């Protein structure tokens, strides 16, 4: 893929859900969760998507995963997502992986870390048992864990360790796009910063991340470009410095004003030293 070409292209994406009928309302208008949203996701970058709860961020992500019906055009790594069946085929599910806010809900607490991280290899690729084990260990090491975690369950891990296991499980098949849906929201500030540094280090030139959150201080440090959602619409887009430092839209200004102290991007606190 040419570095100048977007890895993900979303044009006029609309997601709507039917409302329940009420007395006197025979044909209620559908609820529009995402309203003609357009944005692009570029390779080698972390794209931020911010907004209040209920703004449509997670619904947009579910559309990219082919979990909800939508209209508009969505292209991810050359795949026309709208043309895919539901559920999406394995080839596409390997291309796009997700890390959610609560790893306890996403990871089976009865399974060992080795099973949790290794399962995608059994589903998406043909690896011998030994090769699979080696790859699991290497992936755990890439997220700051080691082989001593293989036989632990998630109940034996801290919140930050659980989220690292969830990230390892997502990246072991080397997806083109990693969606992080409020993946740091449940972590304390120190752990969140540590995991954020990890994410930046995992980014490849031919891959991208979509970071969904509401912490603009974190978004400014971690993301290259940011899109702001309000009531299903993208109301502002730009570089992280532009959106978080000199916001143009009144809604973005309100979000920025609600942050007690927004760290300057120049500190690069979350990015590894080069």
TrEMBL record:
Pfam families: ABC_tran, oligo_HPY. Residues 18-256 form the ABC transporter domain. Keywords: ATP-binding, Nucleotide-binding, Transport. CDD domains: ABC_NikE_OppD_transporters (cd03257). The keyword Transport applies. PROSITE patterns: ABC_TRANSPORTER_1 (PS00211), ABC_TRANSPORTER_2 (PS50893). The keyword Secreted does not apply. One of its GO terms (biological process) is peptide transport. Signal peptide: none annotated. GO terms for molecular function: ATP binding; ATP hydrolysis activity. SMART domains: AAA (SM00382). PANTHER family: D,D-DIPEPTIDE TRANSPORT ATP-BINDING PROTEIN DDPF-RELATED (PTHR43776:SF7), TRANSPORT ATP-BINDING PROTEIN (PTHR43776). Belongs to the ABC transporter superfamily. This is Oligopeptide/dipeptide transporter. It comes from Antricoccus suffuscus.
